[in-house]
Amino acid sequence: MVFFLFAGGVMRRRFFILVSVLVGLWTIGPFQAQADQPSFRVFLDVTDAPEVGTDAVKASALVKEWYPKINGFLFDHAHPLPFNLVVLSFEPNPAIKNAPAFAMGNVIHVNSNYIQHMPDDFRALMVHELTHINQHYPSKKPDSVWIIEGIADYVRHKYYEKDIQLTLRMNSKGQLTGYSSAEPLFYNLQSAGTSLDDRGYLQQYTVAATFLYWLEARKDPDIIHHLNTALSQDQYKPDLFRILCGRPLDDLWGEFVTESKTGRPALGGPITEKSVH
Ligand SMILES: [Zn+2]
Question: What proportions of the chain, in percent to the nearest 5, are helix, strand and coil?
Fold first, then answer.
């Protein structure tokens, strides 16, 4: 913590740690920045949560590696990064209460209390929030929120945790079964007995991520890229699913639910199934 004394009191100065510089000059493993890629910096603000210590340093390393990586997954590596500065702000009382973290603009606000209790989950959570910074869509319309959150969890589970699934485990009523508290979203829906039969994708997050992964495997291998492009250009419409995948969105969801319940593709088998981790 840094303090400056002024006449009449003590004024605390925001304590920024400059952790990474000029990615163009800094090799970050196999995803070294391209020569034509803009450099970026990562700032850590631990003013209100100095106890996060090494977790903050780990988070900065993650951003250095994954910010350009995610850009490549969603767009391509030649696509300019949306910001040349990413700020990680660790806060004991973030503005959105009870949220482990949230992203606004180029800032990820991290609930420092949460990461003390969920150290394993913490970095995967950062990948989700960092994906929002990469997305940087011009608007967040209500009918696309589930896709925005689904893509963030798709990146998290497919590329970072490598545990994305092709279908969900559910009973004949569309209720999830067999999940543990290690998968909080699924577990909470399961505990509440929520049926996903009717537009269950609106549950967002990992439910939507699983559906998007299923669409990628069964209908359109480039679905994520297409959706991301449409959202980036503020041109997303639900009818895009019919155009890309051949059926209306809710019919596709129905197919996904049927396969989740039965373990068998509803319409005669996989088209472009990929390996599932
Ligand atoms: Zn999110």
Answer: 45, 15, 40
Give distance in angstroms: CA of 153 to centre of ligand 1.
Answer: 8
Q: Are strands 16-20 and 41-45 parallel, antiparallel or unpaired?
A: antiparallel
Give the H or E element holding residue 102: strand 101-104
Q: How far is the CA of 74 from the centre of ligand 1 (A)?
A: 15
Residues at Cβ < 5 Å from ligand 1 ion: 149, 152
pTM for this model (two decimals) = 0.83
Q: Whose CA is closest to 113, among 123, 98, 127, 126?
A: 98
Low-confidence residues of the chain, pLDDT below 50?
1-35, 269-277
Q: How far does the centroid of ligand 1 lie from the alpha carbon of residue 129, in Å?
A: 6
User: How many angstroms does the Cα of residue 132 sit away from the middle of ligand 1?
Assistant: 7
Report yes or no: 82 and 104 within 8 Å, Cβ to Cβ: no
CA of 47 to the centre of ligand 1 (A): 24
pLDDT digits (tens, 9 = 90+) for 50-76: 888 888 888 999 999 999 999 999 998
